[in-house]
Amino acid sequence: MSGADGRRKPLKALDEALSELLQFAAVLSEVEDVDTFDADGRVLAQDLVSTLHVPPQDNSSMDGYAVRCADLTPSCGVLPVTQRVAAGSAGVSLAPGSAARIFTGAPIPAGADAVVMQEDCEEIEGDKVGIRTVPLPGQWIRRAGEDITRGSSVLSRGDRLTPAALGLAASIGMSSLPVVRRPRVALFSTGDELVMPGQVAPERMKPGTIYNSNRFFLRALLMRFGCEVSDLGIVPDRFEATLQALKKAAHDHDLILTSGGVSVGEEDHIKPAVQALGSLDLWQIAIKPGKPFAYGRVQGAHFIGLPGNPVSSFVTFLLLVRPFLLKLQGASQLAAAALAVPAHFTWARPDKRREFLRARRNAAGGLELFVNQSSGVLTSAVWADGLIDNPPGQTIAFGDAVRFIPFAEVLG
Ligand code: AMP
Ligand code: MG
What we know:
Blueprint (H helix, E strand, L loop, with lengths): L13 H11 L6 E5 L12 E2 L9 E2 L3 E4 L10 E8 L13 E4 L11 E4 L3 E4 L3 E4 L9 E2 L10 E3 L7 H9 L4 E5 L3 E7 L3 E2 L14 E2 L2 H11 L3 E8 L3 H12 L4 E5 L10 H8 E7 L2 E2 L3 E7 L2 E6 L3 H19 L10 E4 L11 E8 L5 E3 L9 H5 L2 E5 L10 E6 H5 L1
Parallel strand pairs: 5-6, 13-16, 13-17, 14-15, 17-21, 19-23
Antiparallel strand pairs: 1-12, 2-11, 3-10, 4-6, 4-7, 5-9, 8-9, 18-20, 20-21, 22-26, 23-24, 23-25, 25-26
The protein binds adenosine monophosphate and magnesium ion.
The site of magnesium ion has 6 residues, from loops.
């Protein structure tokens, strides 16, 4: 992009753009209690401290017989069975010289110090059991507090709740959880060429029109990252219409997210319209795909303008909007972990910008590239299972380790 004086604006490094963007993202202050069933993906607003041991008592990890080890020797292995303890019941103290029939999850009777699995035992008529092995003290006993000890913190403020974390919270008795409220996001697409699937059949598409694809993945991505989405549809490439859409969107939303119209062509009305209502910075970020990116404010709402090209839109969402949304919700883990994976391709003509190449793992544990890396080819993002983060000017030889960001890492 050229400045007013005709000089090219220097490109902004991605890391710099991200840290600036994150500085704008103040954590939303409202906390709400949500049912633990409904808290998947939400960000915890307080540490969770357990008021009990998990498991609460020593219990059996096998179906078998609870015994006192001292009663058993290689020559003497027959004991009377004096009680039966199933999961959900509590036994009585185990008298010396006896055994308790016990099942997985049942509390260990006081005095017993091992469980012998039923496969190593033999029922003998007259309520006796023959034990074929000499047990070791503690065997097949799950200790009280082995998972969680009373008073310990099991989950921390800023943790993004996963299905396993919901289970863990439930295991300490939490039926609801304090989480940061969902960000409210207004979404709209710009572009006179856009039509909605369902509105016009493929065979009736007018020349020059395309289906609006960004709207679908942006909406899904926003929802995946915990947002409440107001979808304001398609806004025509006119200043007045863009202004009206922005005014409407600023009301009662934390973020306005748009795609398209952030270049500086005559049909790109985002910049003047946002500036008329607030402020805007148009960034040229040194990444490919996804160079144009805008951040601004419209009457108290954050504004983020993504590029229109579908892959650019998708990639900049993952690299910049995702951490922004997580930060709004107070998440402590914002960066996506990259793995070192060998390239099973060569890349001879790298770009001057940092590239995010659509790639997928093959059965041999290497990465293959999608053939067409154009920013308009959304097929690449579906075929791929992640992005290779390739530094500026870096060629890649077959077998080189590259930085790979799995989609599973950033989309989960
Ligand atoms: P723009 O950033 O508005 O100049 O758009 C760049 C390219 O992306 C153009 O080819 C647009 O037609 C295309 N594009 C913009 N918005 C969308 C969208 N919502 N869905 C699909 N393609 C889009
Ligand atoms: Mg456009």
